[in-house]
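Archive entry. Fields below.
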Amino acid sequence: MSVLGQRLELLYLLVVKELKVRYKSRFFGYLWALANPFAFAFVYWIAFKFIMRVEMENYALYLITGMFPWFWLSAAVVQGTRCYVVNRSLVMKVTLPRAMLPLSNAVQEMAHFAFSLPVIIAFLMFAGGYELDPAWLWQIPVLIALQIAFIYPLALLFALINVYVRDMEYLVNLGFALLFFATPMIYPITMVPEDYRLYFELNPLYALMEAWRSSFLRGTLPWRHAAYIAAFAAIAGVASWLLYRRVAHKIADLL
Amino acid sequence: MTDAVVCEDLWKSYHFRRPVGLKTLLVGASMSRETRFARTWALSGVSFRVARGHAFGVVGYNGSGKSTLLSLLLGTVHSDRGKLEMRGRVAPLLEVGAGFHGDLTGRENVFLYGSILGMTIKEIRDCYERIAEFSELEDALENPVRTYSAGMIARLGFSINIHSPAEILLIDEVLAVGDARFQEKCRRFLRAFKARDGTLIVVSHNMVELASICDEGICLDMGHVIHAGSIQSVIEAYRRLVAAVEAGNHAQRAA
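PREDICTED_STRUCTURE:
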């Protein structure tokens, strides 16, 4: 078997490890992986459909369809940033390919996102009256691939910086808390004053989240957003690869 | 006879590579003076060769550079100067339980750890029975590793490592935690491993064990090789060093 095949197996085992660790010792086990997103979406739906009635069509669905991809993104990048510091013994005492750690974080959070997909679709159908859209069959895999390509270099880059400057993990945490409000997540971009709208649209996270919402709510994948995400992922990919080549062999010295 | 490990004039310093906080970046760090545990060079000009099929012992005080040397041999840290060649696949036994996850069962950890060592899932499956048998953990393999004693974890780690296709084994004190019978079994295995042209590098404070397994070795002090030669002469050199340091301590206390 090729080296790549062996690495893929290792990635698989690392991801399965995390999922097992998180759910195995729970009484309801993997049911939580579904119950969690369901409970979350249900609370949002109740809150915004019946209590805080926002003057926007299908506001609860707008929230739900953006929120789950956002959880995946932020959880993967925040955990990825800490991956070397947290997995010290994997870095120091065994020879694990070091670029693997942030990737396993990204994939493991993707698995959680995959569990929330049926929840999102169920809410679209039963709360929004949507029908199953065959376009999702190709749009969702494309979006998942784009999001992995977006998360991985970003997490690798932050993880390498965090080895040198441990404040990075706090900055990333804070950054995502701020970006949550700076990215049109709980409000539509049309609510942003027209003079500032361009700056909001330049935010690659907006492109990513809007692409997800557009696919779920309108069944279209805006190519402009997809291309922008891909371009950003490519730049981050080159930057993280250059930094990784320079500092990967020094990681253990600093832990 | 061919060499499995070649070290020529290895130098290693951690001094210039410390993780920094934002504060240190802005204000700058203060210099500290040279001591046994905080010196500029962790290793200064270490050279040795180990022939294939031989066992090589490394002795020295805590902080003398033994673990740094093993990390260099494993490849988790890189030397600042010098040449290092490892001619063969390396398996590390540097820390009891490194690479294991407490919430996974013994069996699941065999697969994860085997994969970290570079084995394919098929290879692991093929030798799983032998790993289980050697470890003598029997039914305990289905329990989470966090319920294991240190000795049981060491058994499992040792069993996986020796069934990996490694040609060079690095061992750092990990045999000390097994019970006497298991230790004897390990010693028998290590002799057989040598007879098959496997190479061992052993760090230990147990001189009896070193004398029984190793052929040659080095004694390290403050990162320098103060003696190299047959294992008996290395142990002698270490005893002289211990005696000298004791005498020095007495002199200091008297003063």
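CURATOR_NOTE: Helices of chain B lie at 22-27, 66-74, 106-116, 121-135, 150-163, 180-195, 207-213, 231-254.
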